[in-house]
Each structure stands twice: as structure tokens, then as C-alpha cells.
Amino acid sequence: MLPFQITKVRSVQDALQSAAVGGRYIAGGTTLIDLMRDEVERPDRLIDINALPFKQIRAEGSDLVIGALARMSEVAAHPDTLRLHPVIAESLIEGASPQLRNMASMGGNLLQRVRCPYFRMLDAACNKRTPGSGCSAIDGLNVGHAILGTSDHCVATHPSDVAVALVALDAKMRVWGPQGERTFPVEQLFRLPGDTPHLEHTLLPGELIIEIRVPGLSYSRRARYLKVRDRASYEFALIAAAAVLDLEGGVIRQVRLAVGGAGTRPWRLRAVEQELTGKPFERSVLEAAARTALEGARPLSGNHYKVELLPRTIVRALEMAGEIA
Question: Is the pLDDT of residue 233 over 90?
């Protein structure tokens, strides 16, 4: 372990001032500490933000408001989460072991770095870790890598499960930084790799996530999160899908869809949503629309199976949502 300093802050102003002179925010540390042990991340200074007052989980009308420092386990078990957006609770439970859920914060979960093994291998080429070094995954072991949103510089998937549900639900996040406060969709937090895969999110230097707001939907209880993985216990997604369905008289009035494990960021499927809206809720219709999700797909040598698994997972997630009374 390389030497570092840690500073505990008790106000947002103190946090921003500490970040201004260099340092990394840390809450649960479930990703950052691992990366520091592997010497992938080498911060000289950590800023402990756990004393900041952003742990509340509450309902505001039909909206669910989640503090960025709320632990995953707290959000998953909260009555307002279960009442307003049970798909969030489902994605959180599927997203990590109980031990990790008890430690990991919601803001940290969204900002966690990729789980590509080459990113963590210091002797491997990785443009995320060392810009311009190359991407060993493209011609290497890439069975779990992305088929959507990839570039010639990076093919790693974003690992968060709850981010997929939040993107499907059009959640927004509030951040504070040296230039003040701003609010934007969670979907806009994540960058495509392009030719700068080391730039993973759109936060400005020193900005701090404060809360996540999930707008209410009249049909939000008819929603499911389906995660396909190599084993039933804690594992990252091969393909996952969050489906939120407004169904009346056997007709799809509205639908929200996002997938994980397929893209370099949580991937909203607006073309599939448009294809399904106003159509009968029938398997043949679901299957035809789900194939639309493959537009622009670039499978690699080891993950062609995702071309079939992605639409099948979408269809099954929709069917599971449709089974909810």
C-alpha cells in the first residue's frame, strides 16, 4: 500500500475546499480501497465524506429522493423504495453481497469503476488506466465485455445494477461543486469511451453528488429487474434488464427499458420503447421489438452469445413485469 493522507470533513464547504487542493472523496470505499490495494488507483489524499448529511431516504409526493450517502442496503429495505419503485430495491439486492450493500453508498455505486480484468492488471494495456496504452480486452478474453457503445479504445461494461434501473426511470441527480449546484439526468453522468475512455463521467473537478431523485410513475410497481450471470450468487451481469410497463387491456401504453452488461454505460433502449408503445402485449411483438436493441452492436470474438442473450433477457423482463397485477 502506498502512503496517503485521509481527512474527515463535516460540511459541504469543507469537502469542496479539501477537494480544491487535491484528493478523492470516499464513503464506503468498496471499490476505491480495492483499487488502491492493487495500485490501480494511487491517490495521495482521501476525503472522508461520511459525516455529511446526505443519508436520508424520503418520499416527496410521488417522487423518491435518495441521499447520495445512503447505503445500498438501507435504500433496498426502505418502505418508500418498496412502495414507489420496487425495481430499485430489486436491482440493489441483485447488485452486491449483503456485506457490500451494508457499506456501499448510492453515489459511490454510480461512480464505481469498471471490472474489466485488464484494468486491474498493471502489466496489461488499458486505456482507462494508462491513456494511449491500448486495450488488451479487444483481442483478449472478452466474454463479459460490451457490445454496445464500444470504441477501438475500450470495450468495458459499466458494472452498476442500480444505475440501470435509475436510467430506465429517468432519475435525476443533484450535485454541488465549486461552481455551485446543478441537476441533470443520471443517464448523463456516464460518458461513452470514444477515444478518451479514462474520462468515465461528467462530474466537474471537486463536484459532489448530493441526492438522486426518481420521479413518480403511475405504473412504477409493474416493473422488474432481471439479471443474467454466470452463477446465482454475487456476480456481475452478463446481461441485465430493467423493465417498467404500463399495460392496459392487453395493450402496452408506455414502457421504460434499460440494460446493463451490454453497453459501456447503462443503456437506455428508446428505440425498443417506441417500437412497443401502442402494441399488443404478445410474445411475438416483444421479440420483434427486442431485436431493435442490437442496432449498432459490435460483438467481440468471445461475446457473440450476447447478440442472442440481450433480446431474450429484454423479453423475459417485460414478461415478468407483465405478470405483476
Answer: no
